[in-house]
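Annual report, structural modelling task.

Input specification for the D-glutamic acid complex:
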Amino acid sequence: MAVGVFDSGLGGLTVLQAAQARLPEVDFLYYADSAHAPYGVRDADDVFELTQTAVRALWARGCDLVILACNTASAAALRRMQEGGLPAGKRVLGVFVPLIEALSERQWGDNSPPREVAVQHVALFATPATVASRAFQRELAFRAIGVDVEAQACGGVVDAIEEGDMILAEALVRSHVDALKRKMPQPQAAILGCTHYPLMEAEFQAALGADVKVYSQGALVAEALADYLTRHPGMLGTGDRGYLTTGDAGRVSDRATQFLRRQISFDGV
Ligand code: DGL
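The model returned the following structure:
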């Protein structure tokens, strides 16, 4: 029995790690579409097609529930897949809503009208495709009013992380934070709107300053998943746990082992 977790590459491991810690009794099957990463520079149709292929592969392996642990895929594909109709007994969930509920001080499933919230100046760091989609702003507008969101498209950061070039990734984080601060000098909160970015959370926090609250998705998504599985215990599926990649399994395993600081072995799909 396994829940599917999908990302373009290694970023979704930050969500997987939190989900494994929160739900140690649940098995997970992780799928990294490393051959096609990064998604953040692709157009929405391309991301939709790639995401749909990966999700169908996880469903075919018995994961009835698939988490899109990728903001770019959630922005471009989630609503389109759900509106297109899902096969009987299959579900797909994204990563935006738990984060936005935390930012807008809401409990799960609170669908009351949008209201004023404590934070008014929010920096959003995400991939170019996620920023272009404006999906965060749209979801936030359903829940909060009066929040000024300044988005920074962080070109290059995912590529550098996938390549394991953390020196370049750190330099890019600093320059993207500087660019954001030129547009919004004093954000109160910062959203790491790409699941790769928690791997650089300390660098984001250092560049932003200690007084900026940094939100990342791992623990929030894990809590929302725990809640979902309590309400839908039949969604644990039938698949086996493991790690799959469309890329070079040895290379992806090495990087994953480096990031999670434990042995991770990927297989080819
Ligand atoms: N982890 C993906 C996200 O959350 C990265 C997308 C990419 O491959 O550019 O957006």
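The radius of gyration is 17 Å.
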